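Troubleshooting: if your tokenizer reports a length mismatch, compare your output against this known-good record of 230 residues.
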Amino acid sequence: MTADTVFAVRNPEGDIELRVDGSKTLTVAHISAVESACAAVEAGRSGAVLPVYVSGTPGAAWTSGLDVSLVSKWERSVRRLERLGATTVAIASGDCGGMALDALLATDFRIATPDVRLSLPVDGEATWPGMAVFRLVQQAGGMRLRRAILFGTPVEASEGVDLGLLDEVTEDPAEALAAVTARAAALTGSELAVRRRLMADAATTSFDEALGRHLAACDRALRRSAPKAP
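Known-good structure output:
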């Protein structure tokens, strides 16, 4: 990761990619970078896949200068990333905490190098109580992650795969990203967003409440695949 902390850039193919350095303190520029990447994808100025490179974890006194208004704006930008109408793929390396962990947990597919360690940053008296806690519990279960959530114990790469927080651990993340990109090429971003929402709602919605939403999604899919009238 370069001296730039969180930023959106165009790769050699001309597509947007997002890079997040979790070792840095949150600023408005970081929020703007996430928003810019999302806007570019939504406007069709990027490919069907948004790569999100994440690495780094906060050091001591990383919350100096932060206020809850800035944190709220960051959480909203991560939520926008999480609901993006495109496949989002995290490529994680080394220690990942803070903004890096937030971004990783908001992606659809997570590729990691073997040295990855996921952790909640500790701020003085306890671990940081941001929305990463919510996503960790939602995605992997609180009891299995209580040491990570309560004490900041790092989650190693193999454990991350076992918990479902990581999808693939590899020495060649570029090759893994290319494979995911190829699989995602046939997917429609807006339809992916619908499936993502149904999946998230399933954890907190009763069958009867969910049925209408799923039937609506089925009807939408049938209409999209029906032969067009001559």
